[in-house]
């Protein structure tokens, strides 16, 4: 598949840059200021897609504490992605090992429930790492410690290095909506996609011996459910604070396009990997730092450089823009941006049927 | 030294006249030369046994050789086939560890048996965790024996039939028409048995493949061919992360299926030519001697 399209737009009547050969591009915006780290999204996804043998260790959706090692441990330094904007040379990557993902632990349920043991419920042994082992740890010193939650799924990238990494073209970006999938009939378990994805969002199923990944709940968005209704991906629908917007990047009437392309307040994670993700984040705000006496001072609690490392240099302007609009509303003014960020109307939050008539 | 004249060069070479002794010398020289030519023509192929890319096949009417350790294999000649990293676009393609594979082959009236043995210190049988890859080996034939396909998994119009065994998946039979197009047959028609023996640097894998000579379906190599059968080999060392295009491969070799148990036809041809040459040389020589004597 050619992924070298940059300026030449795929769709004539939109200015939105979607991949070559793709009609429309699904996208998601997650507002990090609303995430409470409840993992409902993680469990919704797991119950739906990764309960079978060989996929126990997988979390197609995971929520990690930042700053932190993440899931799998150290994924941000595990390589993958592209060497340059030409998208011709891929960066080499590594396959995380079992311990980096975190094995499923065995607990002493048996002893406690049936054998009358009065020891506390705990993992049997070997519990030295796992997803969210460093949950809520964050960084910084009291009274200025800080952390936030980062929910992650596959970014269904415009230049997916996982697709390019597969020598068998088992991974592909589907034409109708740009969802990136693994053809289970073509996959032979080589795992070049696993190492080639800089977000480590392709997983090797140790039983089927094939790779698997987030499918953006495509049967739900295609209306394959019991009543033929269209649903957004489960991670979005189940989220208690409803912080995810789901739609198409090239739907210019939708909130995603406005947040990403007009206000430029929704940013991709690690743009320097150059895969051009289609999941975007509203960067987190935190209260200013406190002095020893508990006074708030005008110093960023979350170091700005840390946010730049995660979301690129666009984060400064994004935060400034949101701040300006916030002030405006505080002073009685109006702001479409603030409405978009607060909108609870599901019809706008999930816009998945806009291109159905094509 | 007598001063009667120069003793060198010999007069015969200078020409002009010759003696009976000169004639005799010429005949003797011719005979020796002819004999040398004859010896080199006939003996050379006998000494080197076979051309570089030929892999001998022992023809027997029946044998029980499916097991790598079957007794019969001891009498079967082996070829050391050199391997090198396959050209491939996958990462680390030039990092392979196996440098040679020993190949033996036996053809019975019913089946072809191919035995492969190579050194590998670790027995990598599983792909049960994220970083684990299994050892594997493959034998590649043209799906259609009438022409030789591109070595790297064949081409779209010239496909290859691959016998594949891996510690994790067991036996598979594949069809490929170019890199990345490998497709497994639903049910492999080939059988494979493998064993890993020894320890450390001397440990070896031995795998025996066998299949009926008759192709069980379309796209499978017909092994009843009378000509040479092209064949190549590939080995993967799982613990080195080898899979897909990161593999040690051979060039195309061939099984000389042309001849029966007496050997391939070109050998017969050579002997015939040699025989004619001997007869001719003797004839010419005798005639020369006869004529020389008669002229005296
Ligand atoms: S996030 Fe990774 S797996 Fe998902 S499309 Fe991008 S490169 Fe591929
Ligand atoms: S369900 Fe929503 S709030 Fe809970 S962890 Fe997931 S994204 Fe965050």
Automatic annotation (TrEMBL), chain A:
CDD domains: EBDH_beta (cd10555). One of its GO terms (biological process) is anaerobic respiration. InterPro entries: 4Fe4S_Fe-S-bd, DMSO_Rdtase_II_Fe-S_su. Residues 26-54, 145-176, 178-207 form the 4Fe-4S ferredoxin-type domain. Its cofactor is [3Fe-4S] cluster; [4Fe-4S] cluster. Pfam families: Fer4_11. PANTHER family: NITRATE REDUCTASE BETA SUBUNIT (PTHR43518), RESPIRATORY NITRATE REDUCTASE 1 BETA CHAIN (PTHR43518:SF1). Its main location: other. It comes from the Archaea. GO terms for molecular function: 4 iron, 4 sulfur cluster binding; electron transfer activity; metal ion binding. Signal peptide: none annotated. The lineage of its organism: Archaea, Methanobacteriati, Methanobacteriota, Stenosarchaea group, Halobacteria. Keywords: 4Fe-4S, Electron transport, Iron, Iron-sulfur, Metal-binding, Repeat, Transport. Gene3D superfamilies: 3.30.70.20. This is Nitrate reductase subunit beta. SUPFAM superfamilies: 4Fe-4S ferredoxins (SSF54862). One of its GO terms (cellular component) is membrane. It is found in: Cell envelope. Residues 68-99 are annotated as: Disordered.
